[in-house]
Amino acid sequence: MKLLIAGGVGEHGRNCFYVQGERRCFLVDCGKMADTPEDPYPHLTPEQIRRAEAVFLTHSHADHTGALPWLRESGFQGTVVATEETLGQLPFAVENGRSLQALCPAGGGTFQGLSIQWGRSGHCAGSVWYRFAQEDKSIFFSGDYTEDTQVYACDCIRGHQADLAVLDCAYGRDETPYAGACGRLVRATEGLLSAHGLLLFPVPKYGRGLELLKLLSHCLRGVSYAADALFLKNFAEQQAGGFWYRPAKIDVPVSSYREQPQGIVFVSDPQLRTGEARRIAEQVLAMGGMAVMTGTLERGSYSERLLRQGRMKLLRYPVHLNHAQFERLKAANAFAETAPYHSPELSAAREILF
Ligand SMILES: [Zn+2]
Ligand SMILES: [Zn+2]
Q1: Cα(195)–Cα(249) distance, integer angstroms
Q2: What CATH number is given for 178-314 in this structure?
Q3: SS3 content of the chain, % helix, strand, coil (to 5)
Q4: Residue 118's closest CA among 99, 138, 142, 135?
Q5: What is d(CA 128, CA 101) in angstroms, rounded to the nearest whole number?
Q6: Would you call 35 helix, strand, or coil by DSSP?
Q7: pLDDT tens, 258-285?
Q8: Phi/psi of residue 114, each to 5°?
Q9: Which ligand gives the minimal distance to the CA of 207?
Q10: Are 80 and 55 in contact (CB under 8 A)?
């Protein structure tokens, strides 16, 4: 079998992997690159797109799914397989979508002769890793993966065998351990709260926001929290518990944002691209507040502009692996070969035979 890397290795964004077997071809993820509007799509030929019988999604983030409408327009006729949560989170309609839970209940099953195993990857609600086996060969995809979580459940990748594994290594050579990154974030947030009184955390629609709320509410006392409608909906879902969450509850109330003069405000738009998110950001900043970015800034975004103007601080909250964690994951499994993805600092061959 052959893996063709159509995007996401040696770069951040556009994650897309084409697996070519003797009889069957499939894709894992089909993301869009935010930083290169002149060349945003995965590097797939029309022939490859026509031959792909399915695309398996690891989770809903745009760097893994944003090119799906383009894929369909470019001739893809296959099935889109993803968890029900991922399908529900996508901002566009999906033709031929199939639920992973229905196809592979209890973490395993087959699809058109392909044997599939999956587990929760700890990155957001609905995010998964996959192991595929076909023609006596196997390939593993970690998806965006972290075992260090506050609220999301993770089925740790241990003792798996595969001829090739494509593993998250988004933080590259930054080897800050999870506890160190959390400690730095909490201390800096405390300092910024005493200086500004009011902080804005722009977070992804699904993922890191709830992790931050759990961490900050656990470590800081007397802080009030407010958020936009989507954040509140996700918070209510987490508090109700269920398959995607660890049992731990968050024991602070979160109110609907109404121009509160102090505390922490979450807005579900990391790059502040929507009018509503910008309006909240402007109100917070006008009241003397400061914005805090905990993930990756996209070139040309409103968030990037705030950082340049000194109105935003960068304090990473880890939701991926770094290179040391990538090495530990390799050592805990039997992968004959590995390829790190999601970092501009680490590369791999574009075509890997296995
Ligand atoms: Zn992601
Ligand atoms: Zn990603």
Answers
A1: 29
A2: 3.40.50.10890
A3: 30, 25, 45
A4: 142
A5: 11
A6: coil
A7: 999 999 999 999 999 999 999 999 999 9
A8: -95, 125
A9: 1
A10: yes
CA of 31 to the centre of ligand 2 (A): 8
For the entire predicted model, the pTM comes to 0.97
- 23: tokens are 């009889």
CATH number for the domain whose boundaries are 2-173+319-353: 3.60.15.10
pLDDT of 135: 82
CA distance 39 to 261: 42
Across the range 299-317, mean pLDDT stands at 96
| pLDDT computed for residue 248 by the predictor | 80
Q: Which of 5, 144, 118, 130 is nearest to 62 (CA)?
A: 144
Give residue 123 CA to ligand 1 midpoint distance, Å. Answer: 7
What is the dihedral sign for C-alpha 274, 280, 283, 286?
negative
Domain boundaries, the chain: 2-173+319-353, 178-314
Describe the crossing of helices 208-219 and 178-196 by its angle, rounded to 10 degrees: 70
Whether the Cβ atoms of residue 219 and residue 211 lie closer than 8 Å to each other: no
For residue 328, report the distance from its CA to the centre of ligand 2, in Å.
Answer: 20
Residue 7 CA: which ligand is closest? 2
Span from the CA of 123 to the centroid of ligand 2 (angstroms)? 9
